[in-house]
Design brief:
The protein has three helices and eight strands, in the order H-H-E-E-E-E-E-E-E-E-H. It is an alpha+beta fold and 148 residues long. A hairpin with a 2-residue loop joins strand 3 and strand 4. The longest helix has 16 residues.
Length: 148
C-alpha cells in the first residue's frame, strides 16, 4: 500500500512541482487511446499548464476547478481509477474555459472506492498533446500510527 502512496506522491510532484513543462523528447499519445504498460508513464506526464486548483467529491458528485494558460480554451477530461479510465466519465463533454478558468461537475455513476487512487487528466480539445494531470486519493491524511 505504501508503494502506491509513493507512486501517487511522485505523480503529484511531477504534476505540480514541474509546473507542467512540455516534454519535447517523448511523443504524447492522443487522449483516450488505449495504452500499453510501457506507455503508462507518458500517459500521466503533464505537457501543458492546465491545472486543477480545487476539488470536491461528495454527495454523488465530483467537482473540479482549475486554470489553463490557453484563453477561452475548450477542454475535455478523463478520470482514471488505479490507472484505468472510468467508462462512465463524460470524457467527450466539452468544458469551455471562462478566460483562463474552467470547472466541471459530474454526477458519479458509482461510489468511488476509498482504497483506490485517482488521476484526472485534462486536455485541450483541439490539441490533445496539451494536457495536465491531477492525482488524488480519498483517504485523507495518514494517522499518527501510520507515520511511525
Amino acid at each position: 500500500m505504501r508503494m502506491w502512496s509513493l507512486v501517487f506522491l511522485v505523480l503529484f510532484l511531477v504534476a505540480f512541482g514541474v509546473n507542467g513543462c512540455k516534454n519535447e523528447s517523448a511523443p504524447v499519445p492522443p487522449a483516450n487511446t488505449p495504452q500499453t504498460p510501457n506507455d503508462e508513464a507518458r500517459l500521466f506526464t503533464p505537457t501543458a499548464r492546465i491545472r486543477v486548483t480545487n476539488m470536491v467529491i461528495g454527495r454523488g458528485q465530483a467537482h473540479f476547478e482549475g486554470t489553463t494558460e490557453f484563453y477561452n480554451a475548450t477542454l475535455q477530461t478523463q478520470l482514471y481509477q488505479d490507472e484505468k479510465p472510468l467508462d462512465w466519465w463524460p470524457a467527450k463533454q466539452d468544458i469551455k474555459a471562462n478566460g483562463h478558468l474552467w470547472e466541471i461537475t459530474v454526477t458519479l455513476a458509482e461510489e468511488l472506492p476509498v482504497e483506490s487512487y485517482y488521476i484526472l487528466k485534462i486536455w485541450d480539445k483541439d490539441d490533445p498533446s496539451l494536457y495536465g494531470v491531477f492525482g488524488f486519493d480519498l483517504k485523507g491524511p495518514p494517522s499518527v500510527s501510520e507515520l511511525q
